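User: I'm writing a tutorial on reading structure tokens. Could you give me a worked example: one chain, its sequence, then its tokens, then a sentence or two explaining what the tokens reveal?
Assistant: Sure. Here is the example chain.
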Amino acid sequence: MELSGQKTTPLLALLLALMVGYIAYSGAVIEAIGMKGLAGTRQRIVAMRDSITKFEAATDSAKKELAKGTVADVRKRLETYRASLVLLRRLVPERNEVPNLLDDISTRSKIRGVTLSQVVPEPVEPGPAPFNTYKYNMSVIGKYDQIGQFLADVASLQRIIVPYDVTVSAATSSAAKVLSDSTRRCSRPSSRSVPT
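And here are its predicted structure tokens:
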């Protein structure tokens, strides 16, 4: 019986050593008392190294930015950017302002003595967020000089509106009759106006 006990003792010691080694490496049992195993410690070390590398990169980037100019220069650029943003907000119409802009265009046509004969909306083109482009195919009837003044008025509105693809043609006899022009000097431009 002693012989079998002598054979099993080293086997039990080896098994016990393997269990202790596994527990120390994985931390499976010792985490309950607040200790981490070797694998957990290695993971924390790698995570800390990654964090340190990121912080060093951010610090280097900030140093490079400061080397480009003083804090006063950075503040000056910031103020310039803010002023540009305020200007853009004033010039670019919001979605709910487009009907008011169309009313302004209609009012300008009446002031200049031209007839707004057609306003046809085209599909909205999505632009870089948060901007979209709203296009309208418009036709006006009037004398050449009046139409030029009308287009200048549209271009001078407070919001960005761009007339493009403007074509000018002689008015039909019925359109000329409506404007009481027997010489047929009336023009009928057709253009696309884009409030953006």
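What the tokens reveal: The radius of gyration is 39 Å. Residues 105 and 154 are 6 Å apart (CA to CA).
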